[in-house]
Amino acid sequence: MLVLLAFIIVFHITSAALLFIATIDNAWWVGEEFFADIWRVCVNNTNCTEINDSYHEYATLQAVQATMILSTILCCIAFLIFVLQLFRLKQGERFVLTSIIQLMSCLCVMIAASIYTDRRKDLHEQNSEFYSPTSEGRYGYAFILAWVAFAFTFISGIMYLILRKRK
């Protein structure tokens, strides 16, 4: 049981680390001359512009920012509740509250990555008429980490739902 508990803790911490990296790092959309994330766009590795009200997709990126931050916070809260429930729950009870919060984290990261995917596709179609340095690119590793974090949070949410406290 101790090995299973250690595995679950490491899996949860890995999920949280993936969420932190995906939220903070500047590699959601990359090209040869630029890289962009949900916070800023950098051209030629020196000219970085913060995404603000003047950016044409600001409202959409705010939704992505908010859901990624909420996902990270919920993942951390789920871990704290798991640790509290580990010592407070009676033997044989399930970690339902931890599971619910972790699955909400999973939903938030899925929403963020889905919105970003949809808006990036729309931007690519719109920019085919007008040249933009950020129109030619590909999804970066932080975007991929967001989808991996989605899978990890989903799996850990299901594990918590199944897990019972035993001796």
UniProtKB/TrEMBL annotation:
Subunit structure of this chain's protein: Interacts with PTK2; regulates PTK2 activation and localization. Interacts with ITGB3; regulates the levels of the heterodimer ITGA5-ITGB3 integrin surface expression. Interacts with P2RX7 (via C-terminus). Interacts with ITGB1; the interaction may be direct or indirect and ITGB1 has a heterodimer form.
Membrane topology: Multi-pass membrane protein
Protein's recorded name: Epithelial membrane protein 2
Species per Swiss-Prot/TrEMBL record: Loxodonta africana
Keyword Membrane: yes
Family statement: Belongs to the PMP-22/EMP/MP20 family.
Cell compartments where the protein resides: Apical cell membrane; Cytoplasm, Perinuclear region; Golgi apparatus membrane; Membrane raft
InterPro entries tied to this protein: EMP-2, PMP-22/EMP/MP20-like, PMP22/EMP/MP20/Claudin, PMP22_EMP_MP20
GO cellular component: apical plasma membrane; cell surface; cytoplasmic vesicle; Golgi membrane; membrane raft; nucleus; perinuclear region of cytoplasm
Gene name tied to this protein: EMP2
Recorded GO MF terms: integrin binding; protein kinase binding
Signal sequence extent: 1-16
Function: Functions as a key regulator of cell membrane composition by regulating proteins surface expression. Also, plays a role in regulation of processes including cell migration, cell proliferation, cell contraction and cell adhesion.
